[in-house]
Amino acid sequence: MTIARRGRAQTGRMMAADSKKKKKPTRPKAEAPRGFRDSFAEECLARQAMLRKITETYRLYGFDPLETSAIEFVDALGKFLPDVDRPMGGIFGFQDEDEKWMALRYDLTAPLARVAAQYRQELPSPYRRYAVGPVWRNEKPGPGRYREFYQCDADTVGAPGAAADAEICGMLADALEAAGVQRGDYQIRINNRKVLNGVMEAIGLLNPEDPDGDATMVEQRMTVLRSIDKLDKFGPDGVRLLLGPGRKDESGDFTDGAGLSEEQIELIIGFVEAERDNGAATCARLKELVGASEAGRKGVEELEEIAALLEAGGVAADRAKIDPSVVRGLGYYTGPVFEAELTFEILDEKGRPRRFGSVAGGGRYDDLVKRFTGQAAPATGVSIGVDRLLAALAAKGAQDTDLARGPVVVLSLDKSAMTRPMAMVAELRAAGIRAEMYQGGGGNMGKQLKYADKRRAPAAIIEGSDEREAGVVQIKDLALGAQLAATIESNEEWKAQPAQFSAPRDQLVEAVHELLARAAARDAELK
Amino acid sequence: MTIARRGRAQTGRMMAADSKKKKKPTRPKAEAPRGFRDSFAEECLARQAMLRKITETYRLYGFDPLETSAIEFVDALGKFLPDVDRPMGGIFGFQDEDEKWMALRYDLTAPLARVAAQYRQELPSPYRRYAVGPVWRNEKPGPGRYREFYQCDADTVGAPGAAADAEICGMLADALEAAGVQRGDYQIRINNRKVLNGVMEAIGLLNPEDPDGDATMVEQRMTVLRSIDKLDKFGPDGVRLLLGPGRKDESGDFTDGAGLSEEQIELIIGFVEAERDNGAATCARLKELVGASEAGRKGVEELEEIAALLEAGGVAADRAKIDPSVVRGLGYYTGPVFEAELTFEILDEKGRPRRFGSVAGGGRYDDLVKRFTGQAAPATGVSIGVDRLLAALAAKGAQDTDLARGPVVVLSLDKSAMTRPMAMVAELRAAGIRAEMYQGGGGNMGKQLKYADKRRAPAAIIEGSDEREAGVVQIKDLALGAQLAATIESNEEWKAQPAQFSAPRDQLVEAVHELLARAAARDAELK
Fold it and tell me: Which end of chain B is more exposed for a tag (fewer CB within 10 A), N or C?
């Protein structure tokens, strides 16, 4: 059958025909699978507005959008997620007709690697791209933990120098501000895997002759990383215990330590506490610690260069700074590592104030494309945690309140005269005012006004037969009405308030414009 | 391990560590699976701009965005696609850990049905929503036929009246114009399944007592539909043959006919050719044909109402009109059916002019939510074929040429003075000018300028040591340079042209602003 093969409707429509064939089909349950969720108007609009501002910043920096398919060959995705050992674990996979395994992407980096390899002849080099979209992880869902979520990445492939890293950091700062985070409410912290490698070399946990290839003592290095990641939680003394003999927590549970010597431990603690008043001083301190290691020295030089470039680009230390206590991602990246933290406090689920924490991270990863081509391609980039950033802005009350406001609702009280509200909404829309007529098919005025309230309509327009004869419309200021209902106690007061007024039919648009302007002024006052 | 559990980078990063364990891993091929594709800058930007304009129109009409997950339970999706009989055919499915089958959505309507059922207590009724996003079909890919493509839908659930259908048609007209289709270049055509049912009843192919439940003669009705769908291709006489004895094509192949009588055939042809000068006259003619059928009469009344409402909403017949020759979707929808066709001609792959054709379709489908709840919920909506519409606008040359333009490229010739270009790009960006510094890590001027060309940069900024001492920068107008290269023949002429000039370093931003204004003026002239 060739009729309307590709449309949307045809598919849904077939279902009805089919269901008629069966007798009493069991009804499917109306729910999304666990770990998946639906976003409604306000959330969608807030996310779209935020993503638009972030991607406009990326564009301003010369990054181009790239959209890849949601589905990739499994072998192009690589060996999936950390934590997960079983094949296909952590991803959603399926076999194609030719038996090849495909899967939904679990991040935006693996598809970039595939594209950078596939189109390496055609793409400019360096290739700067940004990407926005959902990724999927077949993991156990939990509170606030979904199996589908948005990422918003920017990466430069083919740029070997620290200037590319510095630019990503500066761009991240601008993007956060564009998204609505005030300067002073965030801090970008920059560290370098190579400096950590220098520390590992200095304490004898990494072979200085072949730091990249050293496959021994991997576990010990991971234990060190895990321990210093607990700095925020347990403080330097707690980390000392984790690096040394082990630590007992309040409940009496004991965590085995890394068994390092006093000297080894102090070098590590010295590294994470190396931050000084400014980038140059911090780098000088780091050089004292790792100067003996070639990797370490190289890492410090990169940090020095990044600090100088950020300054030249007008990004001061209150926005982005060198901070050796950043350890997140140090196990994965090959050079500089960045993290953006929101520094303001929010209340946690128990009402206690806590720092909001990390909303973006990234770093340099020079083996990105190598898996495909065998040739190293230097790359550096950042990923913004869209949902976390949205939650932060919502918690800070920094979201646009206008997003929640519905359209003006024109009541349709007379089923035999539907052309009249139809003409009114057309006039309002032509003037740029969001408007809809009530489409519920009849229903008395109370029901239609209730609908308008549920829609959070700023106003309802009513034209009964009396109004029609008199050539006027009734305009109900629903936002004001709600405000008054919350404050006014007597019926007399209520009646004296101008939450409903009439206007000549031919001045509908002007009257609604004025009402919306008053509402906006009230909103501004309340802020 | 808890470090950086959720970030993007960590996942890709693990791959490197893992690949080190194996000896000589086989390299994956850098390609997307068949039927999937990548969109680069210009296409992404054009699509985003178009979707933004369309969804702004939807918003103006009071529709709210809804984003559902890409993955649904298989039984919530219904019985998949037409044409496909095998279970799981046509979709991408996989089992969850608890063995439940899930699948990627194949349209945006099935998820809407699930949401409308799941949240029916919370959502306003009627519920107006729009949705934009990819859908997936596990079908055999072919030229221009992908297994992932965008849809952009708007639907009203819970609105029983023709006013909702009329509004969808008016909104579709506005959305097409917002997307860049000129008035006169499109035509929305409206028909009604019920009128077709009236015709089927009149010729004895449908039981008037139970038109919705009549499961007999389904094949004959489909044959009739298929035949009249060929009207464009074979004309009325060809359709007469298909409805009657059958038709032999030029190659001698014979298509079996429906075997209808002369009288039956003339009634059908009368139906598809019922269009008259205006909606009222068309409806009057339709009444003559199907007036004896209750369903038919009801259908004509709905069309009359839609025509009157469109007129009241300021949508004239040159934008949307009643046209009984529309048969697409008539087999699926339960009431009014809409189709938007682009009427301008484009050249096909063989250089022959042809009408661009359909870019959007929709209709009323009153059984949308019933599968879940057992209760009918009237629904009507439209889906715009995003990729087809984009292709149409590109063919028409109606796309924004600015989308292809790259950022200003600031060369970085001196690796020991990278802070200087860094400061320049920061100044340009602060002035709202897209700019990037060359990040390729050295490279002589020729290589860097070649990169700027590949980026389609409007200008390149050069500061060598001479310029630096003199306090100036060289600015190359690359767009003008390319234009000149195409027209100038002698070296002397070339040198006389102002495609490169110098400006004081502290007037960089002004100079680039002026260059961009000149480029825009040249572009406008060329149009």
Answer: C
Search chain B and give the residue with CA nearest A165. B439
CB-CB: which of A73, A125, A327 is closest to B440? A125
Q: With an 8 Å Cβ cutoff, are A226 and B2 in contact?
A: yes
Per-residue pLDDT, averaged over A80-104, amounts to 73
Pairs of residues, one from chain A and one from chain B, whose beta carbons lie less than 8 Å apart? 489
H or E element that contains B310: helix B294-312
Residue with tokens 């210009």: B42
CA-closest candidate to residue B502, choices B527, B454, B526, B470: B470
Neighbours of B227 (CB within 10 A): 26
Are B66 and A39 inside 8 Å of each other by CB?
A: yes
d(CA A50, CA A46): 6
Residue A229 makes CB contacts below 8 A (sequence gap 6+) with A327, A328, B2, B3
H or E stretch covering A279: helix A279-290
Alpha carbons within 13 A on the beta-carbon side of A94 = 19
Residues A102/A133, Cβ–Cβ less than 8 Å: no
Q: Where are the beta strands (DSSP E) in A365-478?
A: 379-384, 408-410, 435-437, 459-462, 472-477
Instruction: Give the confidence band of B218 by pLDDT, cuts at 50, 70, 90.
Output: confident
Do B409 and B461 touch, CB atoms closer than 8 A? yes
**Cα B424 to Cα B229: distance, rounded to the nearest angstrom:** 62
- In this prediction, residue A490 carries a pLDDT of 63
Please name the member of A15, A115, A407 whose beta carbon is closest to the beta carbon of B79: A15
Q: Are B330 and B195 in contact (CB under 8 A)?
A: no
B17: pLDDT confidence band, cut at 50, 70 and 90?
A: very low
Contact flag A455-B124 (C-beta cutoff 8 Å):
yes
Report the alpha-carbon distance of residue B174 to residue B155 in Å, rounded: 15
* Best CA proximity match to A221, nearest among A189, A264, A270: A264
CB contacts, 8 Å: B454 with chain A: 124
Task: Kindly list the residues from chain A whose CB atom is less than 8 angstroms away from the CB atom of residue B156.
Answer: 439
> Which residue type does B386 have?
V
**A15-24, B35-44, B158-167, B453-462, range with the lowest pLDDT:** A15-24
With vertex at residue A417, the alpha carbon angle to CA A415 and CA A418, rounded to the nearest 5 degrees, is 75
Nearest by CB to residue A76, choosing from B18, B28, B118, is: B28
Query: Rounded to whole angstroms, how far apart are CA atoms A149 and A385?
Result: 9
Q: What is the ipTM of this complex?
A: 0.89
In order of start, what are the domains of chain B with their CATH numbers?
Answer: 41-210+292-395 (3.30.930.10), 407-526 (3.40.50.800)
How far apart CA A270 and CA A266 sit, in angstroms, is: 6
Q: How far apart are CA A204 and CA A198, in angstroms?
A: 10
DSSP secondary structure letter of residue B408:
E
Q: How do residues A205-219 score in pLDDT, each as one tens digit?
A: 898 888 777 888 888
Residue A493 has what pLDDT?
Answer: 59
Instruction: State the pLDDT confidence band at B401, using cuts at 50, 70 and 90.
Output: low
